[in-house]
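JOB MANIFEST
job_type = single_chain_structure
chain_count = 1
residues = 244
[input]
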Amino acid sequence: MTTRPHFADIARELTEAIASGRYPVGSVLPTELELRDHYRTSRHTVRAALHELQQLGLVSRRKNAGTRVESARPRNEFRPTLASVDDLAQFGSEHLRLVQSAEVIVADRELAKTLQCAEGARFLRISSLRIDGGNARAPVGWTDVYIAPDYAEVADIAREQPDTLISALIEERYGHSIAEIQQGIQAVLVSDEMAKRLRVEPGTPALEIVRRYLDSAGKSFETSVSIHPAERFSVAMRLKRSNS
């Protein structure tokens, strides 16, 4: 059985192709479908690879305009720009997910407030480290994903496909397409327990990002809570004036 390439391998190969001049500045890369067929992988994996190139400053991506090469040399800063559901749906897919545990839990009062649910509600919690470049590097963050216990098999799939977002796995398996994502960001201090996981000192400043994924009916089918040490992560957003 042929192993599907990891998004990082595709990104690295495309980066080398750009640096060598195979895809010169100003040219357009093959489409997502063409890259999917070429690498014999999923479209989500291709999107994650192209998103990685975008974060490196090598390409720009615009709807109906393709992926355009902007630079032959990458920048080192990781600074995601979020402007749409599609951007946010791809957000984080450039980091390898290492599942640490999956268990059914009951929401206490504090968790129920975070998840905007009833106290005592049951969830399958999938806890993961987010790694940039492999285990040797310090984790980019820790994410707890809360989904309905009925989605138990998603945990096993998440381990098998560490470069595919859990929301995308739910979409593929159960047909819950993302229509809206509600996101909240706040500054927190890393707890003693979380400090050990993230290899930082307790009390280190961090960003806590809570995202609620809603389907077309307005029903939440996933909530994720991520902790990112401040020096390892930043978020940028584009705000445009409404024409209405």
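[summary]
The chain has a mean pLDDT of 83.
The CA atoms of residues 81 and 236 lie 5 Å apart.
exit_status = 0
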